[in-house]
Automatic annotation (TrEMBL):
Signal peptide: 1-23
Taxonomic lineage from the root: Eukaryota, Viridiplantae, Streptophyta, Embryophyta, Tracheophyta
Family: Belongs to the peptidase S8 family.
Species name: Eragrostis curvula
GO biological process, one term: proteolysis
Name this polypeptide is given: Subtilisin-like protease
Enzyme active site: D148, H219, S556
Coiled-coil residue spans: none
PANTHER family on file: PROPROTEIN CONVERTASE SUBTILISIN/KEXIN
Length: 781
């Protein structure tokens, strides 16, 4: 009999080594993206697509050897909002193209990762406003582009009942495939495109290779319905989270761009999708995708940052997820200043999975399971993983439910208790290990991620904290025959405190500490939204049909909340620029929870700007922000100059041959000046030395009533002196502007080293305009 594991290893080794063994050094071919910036005139972006494509082929042909011209082919040609292409190149060919006078950057076509009933109602309650009067101000002609894994068009969330005709400005298409017809689009789902995607890890997902906008993962359907799904009454996930499911902008239109699969997202496909979305006529693009925080690129080699820049140039707001690598600092991704970066929070609902012990004690845990355990039925033997170790397996591995560590004979038919002292083994893996060993349930003792219930399907599961876990282990040691039962999940409403920054949500600072990231926080924990019908019987409780809705967590879920909120604001203010919409959402964000206390992280510590940005989004409050901060294109270009990019490159990016970097920007990167260069609704000072104050200027636009006077109030952290000049802004008319400066200095010896957080808040008595700041105190230059 063939050793299967060894056979697989040999096959994989052959597949990966043969290309390198058969090619000369430096001649292995990979997919690269060649980015050429905005057109400077003549043929280029926005011109004849065939002419642009021909020019790209000519450029590619010029660096490919004559005897290999048959491989001159474009994977993608970018020609709408910017110019460039993707193609198979050797490393030497990529280097040759990087030196071409028309090229800004060349980078490998990397794999990017995919990062509701109650959530929208919760945001409305937290706003303290009533939606009736304000909601009537919004129209339904905003178009949201969703770059993700596609869509399941049959979901009731994409019903177009009662919707008006598609806006005449829409220029997109509904691409067909073997499993997707033009008739799948309607007045709600107005467009659908697909691109070459990463191969599915599941061989049964054959649809991925056929070419179709249809979602085979569920991620894209979930995000699209969260942003703009129609109202669906009595939606639920097998009885849990029952209520009216809806998107943030249920009157808005949706266009989907399938650039991803279960295997991830090719960066060239994501770049092409954003380019097409802008050309199609979307108003907002939602991108729940990003690079790993460990391998972030500079802005001109980041496909999402590049696509978002040119979208912003053309008046389209791009909203991105912040990533799921929290809670450690410096993990936030998608941090370009022209991107609206979203962190994730909890809502006032949790899912309780109760453990009833044989001694009558009850322990409240969290988790989503549909087990057939019952309080009046059979109690199952309870065993600690360390006491059920397989032969030769270390006790520490068995206590962590490490793969291969449990003795099936000691576990079968029992509820196993495991701990989480080994961070290499995820909750889902522990669940699979216990289930595969024949256990009837798993109790996981772990304070980490306890704010995010694991969806365990029909397998009995509960996660409890360390203190409750100690109680369970004490019970196991107190009797010869410990027993327990894990009850099916029940949802708990009006949970407090909420919102809380999710434990997984990525934290700032970003790669440029001159911009405070993330920008904003929105619901991203246990969000109910539409999904694809599951073909996996383990996901469907016995006797049930596959659910049309799913409960998912991640900054992927938070991102479309903000995209929907932005569409809601845009529908009421169609003339606002992307940065004005972003500003309205940020300056009106809430910073207290449903107990009236400051927002906190999952550890209980006070949340800072690096955790939550400006705070929890409040779309209703954002409809009337009072003041907004409009960020102009030259702000972003100046930022690139101060960040360290040469003037010639910035000209190519912008398409403006006359652009000049500010004086002093060309010498070396200037993070302090970069912080002041962008008229942003938050402030980040990356370096503050004692005796060297830093001043940051901002310009506000009055979008409220005439004859308004705003007075400044400062939340200054200990050890810092923060002054606002002037501290009073007077606006005689609407749409007039006022400029002010915020100066920061170290106050004596009281300042601690590192980041300190606070805010400047302007108020006219009716509006509150809060701009958070983060200041990094350093002791030496």
């Amino acid at each position: 009999m063939v050793n299967t594991a060894r056979f697989v290893v040999l096959v994989l080794a052959y597949r990966f080594l043969v290309p390198f063994l058969s090619a000369e050094p430096g001649q292995a071919k990979e997919s690269y993206v060649v980015y050429m910036g905005s057109p400077s005139g003549g043929a280029g972006a926005g011109g004849d697509p065939e002419a642009v494509r021909a020019s790209h082929l000519e450029m590619l042909s010029s660096i490919v050897p004559d005897d290999e011209q048959e491989r001159v082919a474009l994977k993608h040609s970018f020609h709408h909002s910017f110019e460039g292409f993707a193609a198979e190149l050797t490393e030497k060919e990529a280097a040759a193209l990087a030196g071409h006078e028309r090229v800004v950057s060349v980078f490998r076509d990397r794999t990017l990762q995919l990062h509701t009933t109650r959530s929208w109602d919760f945001l409305e309650v937290q706003s303290g406003l009533q939606s009736g009067r304000l909601g009537r101000r919004a129209s339904g002609d905003v178009i949201i582009g969703i770059v993700d894994t596609g869509v399941w068009p049959e979901s009731p969330s994409f019903s177009d009942a009662g919707m008006r005709e598609v806006p005449a400005r829409w220029r997109g298409v509904c691409m067909e495939g073997p499993d997707f017809k033009k008739s799948n689009c309607n007045k709600k789902l107005i467009g659908a495109r697909y691109y070459s995607v990463m191969p599915e890890s599941n061989a049964s997902s054959a649809l991925a290779s056929t070419g179709s906008p249809r979602d085979t993962v569920g991620h894209g359907t979930h995000t699209a319905s969260t942003a703009a799904g129609a109202v669906v009454a009595d939606a639920d996930y097998y009885g849990l989270a029952r209520g009216a499911a809806k998107g943030g902008a249920p009157g808005s239109r949706v266009a989907v761009y399938r650039a991803c699969s279960l295997g991830g997202c090719a960066s060239s496909a994501v770049l092409k999708a954003i380019d097409d979305a802008v050309a199609d006529g979307v108003d907002v693009v939602s991108v729940s995708i990003g690079m790993s925080s460990a391998f972030q690129s500079d802005f001109l080699s980041d496909p999402i940052a590049l696509g978002a820049f040119h979208a912003n140039q053309r008046g389209v707001l791009v909203v991105c997820s912040a990533g799921n690598d929290g809670p450690n600092p410096y993990t936030v991704v998608n941090t370009a200043p022209w991107i609206l970066t979203v962190a994730a929070s909890s809502i006032d609902r949790t899912f309780r999975s109760t453990v009833a012990l044989g001694n009558g004690n009850v322990v409240k845990g969290v988790g989503i399971n549909f087990s057939n355990h019952s309080l009046t039925g059979t109690h199952y033997p309870l065993v600690f993983g360390a006491d059920a170790a397989a032969h030769y397996a270390p006790v520490g591995e068995a206590s962590n439910c490490y793969p291969g560590s449990l003795d099936a004979q000691k576990v079968a038919g029992k509820i196993v208790v495991c701990v989480a002292t080994d961070p290499m083994v995820s909750r889902r893996v522990k669940k699979l290990v216990a289930e595969g060993s024949g256990a009837r349930g798993l109790v996981l003792i772990d304070d980490g991620e306890k704010d995010v219930p694991l969806v365990a399907g029909g397998f009995a599961f509960s996660q409890v904290g360390v203190d409750a876990g100690a109680q369970i282990l004490e019970y196991i040691n107190s009797t010869k025959n410990p027993t327990a039962v894990i009850l099916p999940t029940e949802d708990v409403k009006d949970f407090k405190p909420a919102p809380v920054v999710a434990s997984f949500s990525a934290r700032g600072p970003g790669i440029s500490e001159s911009i405070l990231k993330p920008d904003l926080m929105a619901p991203g924990v246990s969000i109910l939204a539409a999904t694809i019908p599951s073909a996996d019987k383990d996901d469907v409780p016995p006797g049930q049909k596959p659910s049309l809705f799913a409960i998912k967590s991640g900054t992927s879920m938070a991102c479309p909340h903000v995209a929907g909120g932005a569409a809601f604001v845009k529908s009421a203010h169609p003339g606002w620029t992307p940065s004005m919409v972003r500003s309205a959402l940020m300056t009106t964000a809430t910073t207290t929870n449903n107990l009236g206390r400051p927002l906190a992280s999952s550890t209980g510590a006070a949340a800072t700007g690096h955790d939550m940005g400006a705070g929890e989004m409040s779309p209703l409050r954002a409809l009337s922000p009072g003041l907004v901060f409009d960020t102009a294109l030259h702000d972003y270009l100046d930022f690139l100059c101060f960040y360290g990019y040469k003037e010639g490159l910035v000209r190519k990016v912008s398409g403006d041959a006359r652009f000049a970097c500010p004086a002093g920007a060309a010498a070396s990167p200037s993070p302090d000046l970069a912080a002041a260069a962008v008229n942003y609704p938050s402030i980040s000072v990356p370096r503050l030395l004692k005796g060297k104050p830093v001043a940051v200027a901002r310009t506000a636009i009055n979008v409220g009533p005439s004859n308004a006077t705003y007075v400044a109030a400062v939340e200054a952290p200990p050890g810092l002196t923060v002054r606002v000049s002037p501290d009073r802004l007077v606006f005689s008319k609407r749409w007039t502007t006022a400029r002010y400066e915020v100066s920061f200095s170290v106050a004596g010896a009281g300042a601690s080293k590192g980041y300190a957080h606070g805010a400047v808040t302007w108020s006219d008595g009716a509006h509150t305009v809060r701009t958070p700041f983060a200041v990094n105190v350093v002791w030496c230059d």
